[in-house]
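REQUEST ID: PR-0412
SUBMITTED BY: lab tech R.K.
PRIORITY: routine
TASK: structure prediction, single protein chain
INPUT:
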Amino acid sequence: MWRLMCLFLLMPGLALAQGLQVGFKGLNPDSNDPIEIAAESMSVNNETGAAQLIGDVVVIQGDLRMQAPRIEILYTQEGGVQSMVATGGVLLVTSEEEVEAQSANYNVDAETMLLSGDVLMVQGRSAISADSMDIDLDKEIAVLSGRVRTVLYSDDDTSGAASEN
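STATUS: complete
OUTPUT:
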């Protein structure tokens, strides 16, 4: 069954042929979009190029909204965002999906995101959960590990019956 799940996640064409979509483009915002940040407090260390945001942190870029109690942002020498690490219970929301995890590590240049701790991703009526999810946002590939569970619905399934794997 695990092999079937891996094939499903690693072969988006197979999923599309069945009327299902598991994609991660919504989690990879357009880098040209502005970044809006709100938090209770923020500290910036220009020497290390790091900023720490604490307390009801919300980061919005394009369609992506990230919420967490704490987010650390590392900047490049040019002033762009290199990475973001969110901890303490993370919620990622786009028009396509909602993802919950205990932590999220987003590497902007590599276009990767590692979600850890009670990961739950919901797309429409379908859901995938695992202990961790490592996503290549550019290639739309995810590797899930640690007690993976999924409930998948096809787009044309109006009966309410689920395909559970």
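NOTES: The first helix runs from residue 2 to 10.
REVIEWED BY: pending
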